[in-house]
DNA sequence: CCAATAGTGTCTGTTAGACAATATACA
DNA sequence: TGTATATTGTCTAACAGACACTATTGG
């Protein structure tokens, strides 16, 4: 009934975009990929840093997730990341070009080396930024600061009770490496023994031989049992004194 | 850069809709509001049951949430529900009228009595359906079965560790009533003593005088300390034998 | 043998769950 | 007083966190 008067579909449609928060570990810190907005007088936020993303192309993109994957591969050449939707944001203010709604995803990729920063990108159109440098006072294009903080909040919340950080490491990795990633994302130290107990109990790792040279004593290397989805712990991490 | 060739915004835009899973407790069961699609040859799924929702009206709706609230109040006359976004779904198949993306919210409202079913709606254009009757074989319009199951999954997941079910009760309510709601949503019994301990420890209730007549011994009535957002428990419910 | 990191063992406080016991209303 | 429900108390197993201890490498 509410749709009847508009069955002709002639009314104005909102702009539809997909934006991505692509996380990885770089320089011993959780980092996110930013791209520079193009210059040009008819472009909003020219030259500003933004999350990678853009309009849904209804010719090229069969779905929102496909659109997210396309934009991800355009920027990183990573084809099998962990990808999860954060949510959507839409109003008449966030884009000066008109009423727009964006669908936000976050991706976790292993430390990408140079796969993400081909030579020409030293021409500062793309960069990794440590998330600790992102605050509400950060000036990203559009409302991307807000979107990024929401993605970060989601990530940190789930890290408390899932194996998500494993997707930020290249395989094989060691348990001490994995623990360091947890600590970087959460911003607090974790007990070694408790961490190992939890990780093994969650049963999402398979042994893959000792890794030498990483320190005085070689550590066991592990691979993920299932790279598609994380394992869930029965409880969250929580310090005793809390 | 990816936006440059389209700076004119002349490309085709997806259809943008908002759909709602409005939950309440009815007839001692968790239920969801369904509306009947209008008849008419130019309407998709004529006469089929669907989640309430529809196109975003960029004239009337300043934002997606505002759009969700508008559609909610059109159907239920409830103005202060608990409202949470579930996510968004979009592809070229889900709506026969074209590439469409929908933003899905779920709402929790107290048992509404007749506020939701005014006299004329006995003309079967709107109904409450127990969620236990919803399966993947249910035939709702569009992909609404999938959307509803996602909303239900989200609700059930959060009920394990939040006070969300309290939003399904009219205030004041008793702890046994609240426990029954938890059990209805989760589909399993909970231990009385453990439930009370958790609820009181979470500190989201305020006493509101004894409620007589609900049984042999009157129970304490409670109100929510904050009707805007739920409390979070430190752990999930979990039976010992699991 | 020492330093450094990997990995394990032990202890203890907390707490959820099971279940028993008590409290309070109405008939 | 009896019955039904509300509310509290007790016991125990599980387990996270703290922290000490052992293991294994290179120098």
Write structural notes for this entry:
Two copies of one chain form a homodimer. Chain A is 21% helix and 26% strand. Residues 1-6 of chain A have low confidence and may be disordered. The relative contact order of chain A is 0.15. The N and C termini of chain A lie far apart (53 Å). With 242 residues, the first copy, chain A, is an alpha+beta fold. In chain A, the strands form two sheets. In chain A, strands 1, 2, 3, 4, 5, 6 and 7 form a seven-stranded mixed β-sheet that branches. The first copy, chain A, has helices spanning 64-76, 144-159, 175-186, 192-202; strands at 15-26, 29-36, 49-50, 53-55, 82-91, 100-108, 126-130, 173-174, 205-211, 219-224. In chain A, a hairpin with a 7-residue loop joins strand 9 (205-211) and strand 10 (219-224). Chain A contains four helices and ten strands, in the order ββββαβββαβααββ. Chain B binds a DNA duplex (27 and 27 nucleotides) through residues 174-176, 190-194, 196-198, 212, 214-220, 234-235, 237-241.
Summarize the structure.
2 copies of one chain form a homodimer. Chain A is an alpha+beta fold and 242 residues long. Chain A has helices spanning 64-76, 144-159, 175-186, 192-202, and strands at residues 15-26, 29-36, 49-50, 53-55, 82-91, 100-108, 126-130, 173-174, 205-211, 219-224.
């Amino acid at each position: 009934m509410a749709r009847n008067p508009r069955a002709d579909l002639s009314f104005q449609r909102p702009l539809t975009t997909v934006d991505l928060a692509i996380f990885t570990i770089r320089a011993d810190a959780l980092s996110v990929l930013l791209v520079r907005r193009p210059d040009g007088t008819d472009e909003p936020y020219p030259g500003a840093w933004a999350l990678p993303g853009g309009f849904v192309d209804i010719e090229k993109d069969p779905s929102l997730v496909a659109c997210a994957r396309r934009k991800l591969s355009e920027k990183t050449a990573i084809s099998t990341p962990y990808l999860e939707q954060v949510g959507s944001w839409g109003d008449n203010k966030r884009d000066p070009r008109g009423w727009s709604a964006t669908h936000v995803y976050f991706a976790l990729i292993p430390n990408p080396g140079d796969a993400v920063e081909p030579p020409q990108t030293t021409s500062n159109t793309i960069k990794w930024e440590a998330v600790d440098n992102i605050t509400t006072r950060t000036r990203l294009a559009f409302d991307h600061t807000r979107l990024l903080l929401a993605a970060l909040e989601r990530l940190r919340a789930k890290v408390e009770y899932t194996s998500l950080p494993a997707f930020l490491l290249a395989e094989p990795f060691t348990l001490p490496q994995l623990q360091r990633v947890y600590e970087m994302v959460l911003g607090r130290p974790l007990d070694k023994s408790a961490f190992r107990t939890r990780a093994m109990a969650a049963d999402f790792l398979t042994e893959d031989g000792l890794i030498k040279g990483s320190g005085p004593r070689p550590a066991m290397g592990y691979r993920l049992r299932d790279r598609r989805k994380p394992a869930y712990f029965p409880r969250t991490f929580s310090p005793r004194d809390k």
